[in-house]
Each structure stands twice: as structure tokens, then as C-alpha cells.
UniProtKB/TrEMBL annotation:
Protein family membership: Belongs to the CcmD/CycX/HelD family.
Protein's job: Required for the export of heme to the periplasm for the biogenesis of c-type cytochromes.
Name of the protein this chain belongs to: Heme exporter protein D
Protein keywords: Cell inner membrane, Cell membrane, Cytochrome c-type biogenesis, Membrane, Transmembrane, Transmembrane helix, Transport
GO biological process: cytochrome complex assembly; heme transport
InterPro entries in UniProt: Haem_export_protD_CcmD
Pfam family, one: CcmD
Membrane topology: Single-pass membrane protein
Compartments in which it is found: Cell inner membrane
Transmembrane feature ranges: 6-28
Keyword Methyltransferase included in the entry's annotation: no
Length: 56
């Protein structure tokens, strides 16, 4: 089907799929970590600058 380079082609697709899957998992895990850190900071009273000031 792929000729004499079939194994190489399939291996490249496999490595690419694994790399993309790993990047997707990393992005999801990092997003959850950042969200958790923001919630912890907000629970301690640290507010975002974009939230505005209550006394302003």
C-alpha cells in the first residue's frame, strides 16, 4: 500500500499522533492547574486587576 517505505510512513504518523495527544493532555492539565491556583488566590483575598476595585 505505501511501498517499500510503508513502515517509516506509518511510524511517523504514529509518533505524530502520540505527540499531538501528549500536547493536548498537557494543555488540559495545565489549564486545570492554573484554574486551581487562581481559585486558591481568590480564596485568600487576592483579586485580579481586571476585576476592578470595590472602593473605587
Amino acid at each position: 500500500m505505501f511501498g517499500e517505505h510503508g513502515f517509516f510512513i506509518i511510524a511517523c504518523y504514529g509518533v505524530s499522533a502520540l505527540a499531538l495527544g501528549a500536547l493536548a493532555l498537557w494543555i488540559v492539565a495545565d489549564g486545570r492547574l492554573v484554574r486551581r491556583r487562581l481559585e486558591e488566590l481568590e480564596a485568600r483575598g487576592v483579586r485580579r486587576r481586571s476585576a476592578g476595585r470595590a472602593d473605587a
